[in-house]
Amino acid sequence: MGELISAKHLKKYFNVGSGTLHAVDDVNFSINEGETLGVVGESGCGKSTLGRVLIHLLESTEGQIIYKGKDITKVKRKELHALRKEMQIIFQDPFSSLNPRMTIYQTIAEPMKISGEFSAKQIDEAVMGIMDTVGLAKRLVNAYPHELDGGRRQRIGIARALVMNPKFVVCDEPVSALDVSIQAQIINLLLDIQEKNSLTYLFITHDLMVVKYISTKIMVMYLGQVVEFTGNEELFANPRHPYTKALLSAVPVPDIHCPQERIMMEGEITSPIDPKPGCRFAARCKEATDKCRQETPRLTEVSSGHFVACHLCKIDSKV
Ligand code: SF4
Ligand code: MG
């Protein structure tokens, strides 16, 4: 399948009182149709900002977003309207992202009503159809969010995102607020729907087990920048960036006879406000050298399809 969306030198900066916050700082990647790009990193690394910039909920500061071969960073209002239908978002917290005064029917129907392009009958059919797809009993249409548990509320959030038949969906920590027992159900639901509707996902999470389960490719972010980007299996089998290695070492291994050593990240997190040149991970990296503190490492292909931004990472001879 071909590329659906890509980012080229994408930046999102915010002016804050004390300077400029580099939330997304020169990010590059591409996602093919039907794939899931998992984005991992600690909170504050820019994952959610990136997701919002990609679907135009936030305006980018610089760079390009190529969607179906066209740069959409400069589209006019009318085109934006059409794009909105194709690009949707599922939020982290189903408790706060639903309007408590709207019934389930009203919530799911809202994007179709706002678009003004559908008859009452079409909306009715679409709402009932999507309720079925996400596994919500039809008798719940007149219920209010507070009458439902967390898993069902997230199903409503998913239904609302999918009712317009999007192509690209940003899933921003969609299971983090749910009980572990419900998480698997929602993830499997997202995978089923993806297959049925040929959806492409950007899946944001801080949970490495979730990202391993759902992603085709994985991008690791640290303070607004991509530090590692490769296929799912490759990342877990052969992590190359010190930050990725530290993250992976914190995931519990099932084999107690083969305990892995947890790599602790000490040192202070560098400020993302007016960052100085040099590797942003240097303050926490045990392998940091003087070069690391002076020169920003560039994301480089170190083996086929495996990109890393680290001065100490050797490039395979075949690349
Ligand atoms: Fe560590 Fe240097 Fe690599 Fe940054 S560039 S991750 S400081 S070794
Ligand atoms: Mg977030």
From TrEMBL:
Keywords: ATP-binding, Nucleotide-binding, Transport
SMART domains: AAA
One annotated GO molecular function: ATP hydrolysis activity
DNA repair as UniProt keyword: no
Superkingdom field: Bacteria
GO biological process annotation, one example: transmembrane transport
Record-annotated ABC transporter domain positions: 5-248
Matching InterPro entries: AAA+_ATPase, ABC_transp_ATP-bind, ABC_transporter-like_ATP-bd, Oligopep_ABC_C, P-loop_NTPase
Entry annotated with the keyword Nucleotide-binding: yes
PANTHER family registered for this protein in UniProt: ABC TRANSPORTER, ATP-BINDING PROTEIN (PTHR43776:SF8), TRANSPORT ATP-BINDING PROTEIN (PTHR43776)
Similarity remark: Belongs to the ABC transporter superfamily.
Protein name, UniProt field: ATP-binding cassette domain-containing protein
Taxonomic lineage: Bacteria, Bacillati, Bacillota, Clostridia, Lachnospirales
